[in-house]
Specification:
alpha+beta, five-stranded mixed beta sheet, 14 helices, 13 strands, 56% helix, rod-shaped
C-alpha cells in the first residue's frame, strides 16, 4: 500500500511539474515579453513606426513571416497596408462590408474558432477575407467602436490560451499607441494650420502698421510743405538771378576782348596778372567782406606810409575781391598778385586803368555768380535727396548706415523749419555705422526733433536750443539723445505720451500716432526709447544695437509639449 501511495505521489508531482509549472513559466515569460513590448512601443510617434515595430514583434512571437498591418490613413481616406508603402495599392474603404462586420466584434479571431459566430453572414465575410489573405489570425484594432486598423497573420504555431491573452494585451497597447499617434497627427496639423493663420495675421498687422507709419510720414510732410516751398524758391531765385548776371558779365567781357581795340594795347604783364587772378578766384570766397571801412582805412594807411600811389577805384577793387584782407605781410613778396596789380595800375594811363579793372571785375563777378549757382543747386539737390529718402515707402531693409549721416539728412529736411527759431547743437561722440532701416530711424528723429521744436516755439525761453548727442554705450550698443530746454512734459501726462492717438496739439494739427510709432520702430530694431523731463527741459534717449538679430529664430522654450516630446504618452 505504501508503495502504491509513493508511486501515486511521484506521478502527481511529475504531472504538476510538467503542466502547471510549465504554464507558470510560460506565463512569466509572456509577461516579460509584453512588458518589453509596452516599454518600447510608447517611444514611437508615427503610425509607420508603430506598425513596423508591431510586425517585427509578432514575427518573433508567432514564428511567422506572413504578417500585415492595415491602418486608417486620413489623408487618403482609406485603410491601407503598411507593407505597400509608398504605393498603397491595397485599399479598403471605410464602408466595406468586412470593416462593418469587424467593428461588431471587439475580439481576436482565430480561424479555428470562427465557427462559434452565430451570424452566418458575418462568419462568411470574415472567413472569406482570411482565406483571401491566407491568414489564420485576425486582430482588430478598435477603440470606442471605431476601427483604427487591423492585423492579420498566418502562423503554424499553435496559439494557446496564454498566447491568446498575450495577444490581447499586445492589441491593447497597439490601440492606445495608435490612438495617441492619430491624436498627435491631428494636433500637429492643427498647430500647423494655426501657425499659418498666425503668420498670415501677423503679415496683415505688419502691413497695417506700415500703412500707419506711411500716413504719419505724409502728415509730417504736410506740416513742412510751406517751408519746403520757400526753401526751393530761395535757391531757384538765386540761380535765375545769377544766371542772368553771368550772361551779362560774359557779354561785357566778349565786348572788351573782341570789339575794343584798347584791349590789345594792354601790356603782356596784364596777361600774367589775369592768369594769377583766375587762380585767386578759384580758391577764394566771394562773400561780401564785412567791416569794409576799417579795411579801407588800414590799406590806405599802409600805402601812404610806404608812399605807394593809389585811388579809390583801386582800393575798392582790392578789398571787394578779397585781394587784401587786412594782412600787410602780403606786400613783402614783390612778385605776388596784389603787388603786380598795384604796380601795373600805377604805370598805366587812366583809360587803361579803368579797362584793366573792368576786365578783372567782370571775370570775378562771373566766378562769384557761378559759385552762387553751384551752391544753390547743391542745396536743392540735398533737399530733394533728403525728401525722397524720407517720403518713399520703407521696405524694412536692414542695411549698414552711418549714424551721423542719418542725423544730418534729418536736419536737412527740417532745416527751414528750425532755422532762425532754435539753435541746433551737435555733439557726435559716435560717428560709426549701425545696421538698421535708415528710413524708419530718420522718421523717429523727425518726430522727436519736431516735438522738441513745437515745445520751444510758443515759449519765451531765451536762447532756445535742441541738442543732438550720440554715444557708444557698450561694444554692441549706441545711444542717441534729443535734448531741449523747453518747459518739459507735464508730470500728469507723462504716462500717456506713448499711447496711440494721445496728443496735446489742437485738433487738426496732430494725430497722436507719432510717439507710438517711434516706440514701435525702436522696439522692432531690438532697442528701447524713454525720456526724462522736468521744468528745465526734456531728454529723449534712444538705445539701438549696432547689429540686428534674426527675428525668426525658433524659441525652443515655448514649443508645444506635443512637439517638444514627440508624442502624448498613453499613460
Amino acid at each position: 500500500m505504501k508503495k502504491i501511495l509513493y508511486y501515486f505521489n511521484t506521478f502527481f508531482r511529475y504531472i504538476k511539474n510538467k503542466f502547471i509549472y510549465k504554464e507558470q513559466r510560460e506565463d512569466f515569460t509572456g509577461k516579460r515579453k509584453i512588458d518589453l513590448f509596452r516599454r518600447s512601443i510608447i517611444k514611437y510617434r508615427t503610425i509607420e513606426e508603430i506598425a513596423n515595430y508591431t510586425i517585427q514583434f509578432l514575427k518573433e512571437f508567432l514564428v511567422s513571416e506572413n504578417i500585415s498591418f492595415f491602418y486608417w490613413n486620413e489623408e487618403l481616406g482609406h485603410f491601407i497596408d503598411y507593407k505597400e508603402k509608398p504605393e498603397f495599392n491595397s485599399k479598403i474603404q471605410i464602408f466595406d462590408p468586412f470593416i462593418l462586420v469587424l467593428s461588431e466584434y471587439d475580439l481576436i479571431f482565430l480561424k479555428r474558432n470562427i465557427e462559434l459566430l452565430r451570424n452566418e453572414e458575418h462568419k462568411a465575410i470574415i472567413l472569406n477575407f482570411m482565406e483571401s489573405k491566407n491568414a489564420n489570425i485576425l486582430i482588430p484594432l478598435i477603440m470606442n467602436e471605431s476601427i483604427l486598423g487591423f492585423i492579420y497573420a498566418n502562423t503554424l504555431k499553435y496559439v494557446s490560451i496564454s498566447d491568446y491573452f498575450i495577444l490581447e494585451e499586445l492589441r491593447y497597447f497597439v490601440i492606445i499607441t495608435l490612438s495617441n499617434s492619430l491624436i498627435y497627427t491631428r494636433l500637429e496639423n492643427l498647430l500647423k494650420t494655426l501657425e499659418d493663420k498666425i503668420l498670415e495675421r501677423t503679415k496683415e498687422l505688419e502691413k497695417a502698421q506700415q500703412t500707419l507709419i506711411q500716413q504719419e510720414k505724409m502728415a509730417t510732410l504736410g506740416t513742412m510743405i510751406s517751408g519746403i516751398a520757400h526753401e526751393f524758391n530761395t535757391p531757384v531765385g538765386v540761380i535765375q538771378a545769377s544766371s542772368v548776371q553771368v550772361i551779362k558779365y560774359f557779354e561785357h567781357l566778349i565786348e572788351i576782348f573782341f570789339l575794343k581795340k584798347d584791349f590789345r594795347k594792354l601790356p603782356d604783364e596784364f596777361l600774367i596778372i589775369l592768369y594769377y587772378f583766375v587762380y585767386h578766384l578759384s580758391i577764394s570766397s566771394y562773400s561780401i567782406q564785412t567791416k569794409l571801412y576799417k579795411l579801407k582805412k588800414q590799406l590806405k594807411e599802409y600805402l601812404d606810409n610806404n608812399k605807394i600811389p593809389y585811388d579809390d577805384l583801386l582800393i575798392n577793387f582790392l578789398i571787394d575781391f578779397n585781394l587784401y584782407k587786412g594782412d600787410n605781410h602780403i606786400f613783402l613778396n614783390k612778385n605776388n598778385l596784389i603787388n603786380k596789380i598795384i604796380n601795373l595800375y600805377n604805370k598805366s594811363s587812366e583809360k587803361d586803368k579803368i579797362l584793366m579793372l573792368d576786365i578783372l571785375k567782370y571775370l570775378a563777378l562771373i566766378y562769384e555768380n557761378l559759385d552762387r549757382i553751384l551752391h544753390s543747386s547743391k542745396s536743392i539737390h540735398k533737399l530733394v535727396q533728403s525728401l525722397r529718402n524720407y517720403s518713399r515707402s520703407s521696405k524694412n531693409e536692414l542695411l549698414t548706415h552711418n549714424l551721423v549721416q542719418i542725423i544730418e539728412n534729418t536736419l536737412s529736411i527740417l532745416e527751414n523749419t528750425l532755422k532762425h527759431h532754435v539753435q541746433i547743437i551737435k555733439d557726435f561722440n559716435y560717428n560709426g555705422n549701425i545696421i538698421c532701416d535708415s528710413n524708419q530711424i530718420q522718421q523717429v528723429l523727425i518726430n522727436l526733433i519736431l516735438n522738441a521744436y513745437q515745445a520751444l516755439k510758443n515759449t519765451n525761453i531765451k536762447n532756445p536750443f535742441i541738442k543732438i548727442v550720440t554715444n557708444e554705450l557698450k561694444e554692441d550698443f549706441i545711444e542717441i539723445q534729443i535734448i531741449d530746454n523747453g518747459p518739459g512734459i507735464p508730470e500728469e501726462i507723462q504716462n500717456k505720451v506713448w499711447d496711440p492717438f494721445f496728443t496735446t496739439k489742437p485738433q487738426g494739427e496732430g494725430t497722436g500716432l507719432g510717439l507710438g510709432i517711434v516706440k514701435n520702430i525702436i522696439e522692432n530694431h531690438h532697442g528701447k526709447v524713454y525720456f526724462k523731463s522736468n521744468k528745465n527741459g526734456t531728454t529723449f534717449f534712444i538705445e539701438l544695437p549696432k547689429k540686428q538679430i534674426e527675428k525668426n529664430n525658433l524659441n525652443t522654450q515655448n514649443i508645444h509639449p506635443a512637439l517638444k516630446y514627440g508624442r502624448y504618452d498613453w499613460r
